[in-house]
Design brief:
CATH superfamily: Gcn5-related N-acetyltransferase (GNAT)
CATH topology: Aminopeptidase
Order of helices and strands: EEEHEHEE
Oligomer: single chain
Distance between the termini: 35 Å
Radius of gyration: 14 Å
Number of domains: 1
Strand content: 35-45%
Structural class: alpha+beta
CATH class: Alpha Beta
Length: 116
């Protein structure tokens, strides 16, 4: 519920030709001088996967929100890891880091947008 009421949270519905195809939740972390963004949730319905929809939406969000990004996936979600590595790699020309944090069980890609 907080994504529709709190500052620093941005919900999006994904539509393809007017039909609901998924949703995205983006979270701001930090201050105006040093803003960081994270993808809290990113879901594209199976019917619309592998058609470029997810990459298009991700690129739109990276272009909209300038700053440092963290995109995390759980260890067991191998399709998400493949998608994000490929998508972030294309967007950044492979200029990203992949790290792990003690409080998260899976890879996290870190990169900065707005510096191209």
């Amino acid at each position: 519920m907080n994504y529709w009421t709190e500052d620093g949270r941005h919900p999006y519905f994904i539509r393809v030709e007017g039909v609901l195809a998924g949703f995205v939740l983006i979270r701001e972390i930090g201050t105006a001088e040093s803003m960081n963004y994270s993808v809290a949730e990113f879901f594209v319905m199976k019917k619309y996967r592998n058609q470029g929809v997810g990459q298009y939406v991700a690129f739109y969000l990276f272009n909209t929100f300038k700053g440092k990004w963290e995109v995390a996936q759980i260890d067991s979600n191998l399709p998400a890891q493949k998608f994000w590595r490929k998508t972030i790699g294309r967007y950044t020309n492979n200029n990203f880091q992949e790290i792990r944090k003690d409080e998260w069980e899976g890879p996290i890609q870190i990169f900065t947008t707005g510096i191209r």
